[in-house]
Amino acid sequence: MNSRLTGVGVGPGDPELVTVKGVNALRAAEVVVVPVMDTGERGRAEATVLHYVPAEKVVRVVFALNERTDRKRRETAWDAAGERVAGLLRERGSVAFATIGDPNVYSTFTYLAQTVGELVPGVVVETVPGITAMQDLAARSGAVLTEGTEPLTLVPVTAGSAVLKEALAGPGTVVAYKFGRRAGEVAEALRETGRLDDAVWGSALGLPEESVRSAAEMDGTPLPYLSTLIAPPRRADGRGGKL
Predict the structure, then answer these.
(1) Rounded CA separation 35/58 (Å)
(2) Higher pLDDT, 74 or 209
(3) Contacts of 90 (CB under 8 A, 6+ apart)
(4) Is residue 162 exposed (0-12), middle (13-18) or buried (19+ Cβ within 10 Å)?
(5) Are 126 and 6 in contact (CB under 8 A)?
(6) CA dihedral 40, 44, 47, 53 (to 10 degrees)
(7) Average pLDDT, the chain
(8) pLDDT at 73
(9) What is the distance between the alpha carbons of residues 28 and 23, in angstroms, rounded to a whole number?
(10) pLDDT bracket for residue 87 (50, 70, 90)
(11) How many whole angstroms separate alpha carbon 81 and alpha carbon 89?
């Protein structure tokens, strides 16, 4: 039988938001890999996974999760992580990789799957979708992501504030990920485009340290790295006005 690598989305932090299919995939795998920046830490994905599988089944694998400037260091870390997971697949046959959010949305799983696919011929790669931070924030804040014909634009602020400003100048709702360290620039972009008053941001969703607030409260102080912003368009046309 071919070995199997499954990327499982475990949501933004609240263990109750892991899908039934996700839980079944975690339990069915021989090993559950969780990404960390240091083997001594417990990341958000691992904390969620431990609600459903025993600790002895979980293996921490180091990734250069935030490395953006040193390409050599980043790729060396990817190669090492791929080798580690490939070894687990050869030994155990089935590995689940737990990732916060969804494995197909800005996830480390994408790079891991590419690497492992080259190292383990015939490996079956599949994904189980997870609840994203923007969905959870919309639910917790009451923000509506889309109505009628509105588009939805997702922007990682690590791509630069110019990309965010371009999106905010367009139609529909804009969601920004990973903006915490550039909160001042984000607040200014919202102000310039007239979207500040209706926007909301949140971090640590579903966790004890959760914060969900109006974007108008941002004062330029850096926020947690994994912060999410929802900036809806103005909806002044009444019920069904965007149809």
Answers:
(1) 10
(2) 209
(3) 3, 120
(4) exposed
(5) yes
(6) -100
(7) 91
(8) 77
(9) 9
(10) very high
(11) 12
Q: What's the rounded mean pLDDT across residues 181-196?
A: 92
Q: Match 């580690």 to its residue by tokens.
A: 84
81-to-7, 97, 103, 106, 206 alpha-carbon distances in Å: 14, 12, 16, 17, 29
Residue 14 contacts by C-beta under 8 Å, 6 or more apart in sequence? 136, 205, 206, 207
- Alpha helix stretches (DSSP H) within the chain: 20-28, 44-49, 71-92, 109-119, 133-141, 161-168, 183-192
What is the sign, positive or negative, of the torsion defined by CA atoms of 146, 152, 155, 160? Answer: negative
Rounded Cα distance, 231 and 243, in Å: 19
d(CA 21, CA 25): 6
Distance CA(235)–CA(195), nearest Å, equals 11
Which of these ranges, 31-40, 59-68, 90-99, 176-185, has the smallest mean pLDDT?
59-68
User: Pick from 79, 103, 85: which is nearest to 25 by CA?
Assistant: 103
Residues 6+ apart with CB under 8 A from 183: 218, 220, 221, 222, 223, 227
